[in-house]
Amino acid sequence: MNQETLSQLEQLVDKLIARNTELGQEVSALRESNAKLQDENETLQLEVLESEEKQKETSTTLTSLLEKLQAAS
User: Fold this and answer.
1) 39-58: string of b/e by CB count within 10 Å (b at 16+)?
2) Cα-based torsion angle of the residue sequence 39, 41, 47, 51 in order, rounded to the nearest 10 degrees
3) 73 vs 33, residue with greater confidence
4) What DSSP character marks residue 1?
5) DSSP state, residue 73
6) Per-residue confidence (pLDDT) for residue 73, from 0 to 100
7) Across residues 2-12, what is the average pLDDT?
8) pTM for this structure?
């Protein structure tokens, strides 16, 4: 191998190392983002469950009130 080829190879290796570092940082950022989104998703799922429970309670209360009104008529 001549000196020019070795120089080009060294430059390519340096570029690959730099790109690998960039990709590693991107992966870390994506992992953090994914963890935050998973937490947010779990929170939203809990909120939906709570909302459904409240809706059931409201429905039960309304049904009971309707039955009382019908009985009073």
Assistant:
1) eeeeeeeeeeeeeeeeeeee
2) -170
3) 33
4) -
5) -
6) 81
7) 94
8) 0.67
Residue with tokens 């998703």, as numbered in its chain = 41
Cα dihedral value 66, 68, 72, 73, nearest 10: 20
Query: What tokens does 34 get?
Result: 């994914």
The string of DSSP letters for 47-67 reads HHHHHHHHHHHHHHHHHHHHH
Reading the block at residue 54, the tokens are: 């409240």
Calpha distance 33→54 (Å, rounded): 31
And the tokens for 50? 């709570």
